[in-house]
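Weekly sync, protein design subgroup
Attendees: M.S., D.O., the rotation student, P.L. (late)

Item 1: inverse folding check
M.S. brought a backbone from last month's batch and wanted to see whether the design step gives back something sensible before we order anything. D.O. pointed out we never logged the input encoding, so this time it goes straight into the notes. Structure tokens as presented (109 positions):
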């Protein structure tokens, strides 16, 4: 198992085994990160990774997970943005006993 040197924000350089890291790759943007838990302070560190770093980590046996952006990002958004007052009104609505039927009637077409 390979030894890999990484940097913790608090502790500085630390040595990890390949099983202590994980690579995450986005299929949509070709961006990647790697993450690890610092062996000294136990903080989880997440770092951006360029393709050559990903290649080295994968060659060293680091596990990899691919993910995709949520489909909602591609949806069309109509109407005004939600305001702070809208959130407060919704909070007040949820405190009523008939909040669900009121909400359902607001969304009927």
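Designed sequence read out in the meeting:
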């Amino acid at each position: 198992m390979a030894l890999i040197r990484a940097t913790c924000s608090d502790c500085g350089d630390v040595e990890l085994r390949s099983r202590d890291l994980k690579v995450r790759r986005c299929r949509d943007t070709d961006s990647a990160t790697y993450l690890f838990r610092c062996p000294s302070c136990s903080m989880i560190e997440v770092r951006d990774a360029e393709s050559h770093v990903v290649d080295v980590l994968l060659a060293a046996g680091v596990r990899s997970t691919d993910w995709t952006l949520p489909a909602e990002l591609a949806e069309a958004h109509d109407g005004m943005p939600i305001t702070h007052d809208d959130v407060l009104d919704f909070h007040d609505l949820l405190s009523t006993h008939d909040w669900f039927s009121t909400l359902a009637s607001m969304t009927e077409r």
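Discussion: The beta strands are 3-8, 12-17, 21-26, 32-37, 44-48, 63-67. DSSP finds three helices and six strands in the chain.
Action: P.L. to compare against the previous round before Friday.
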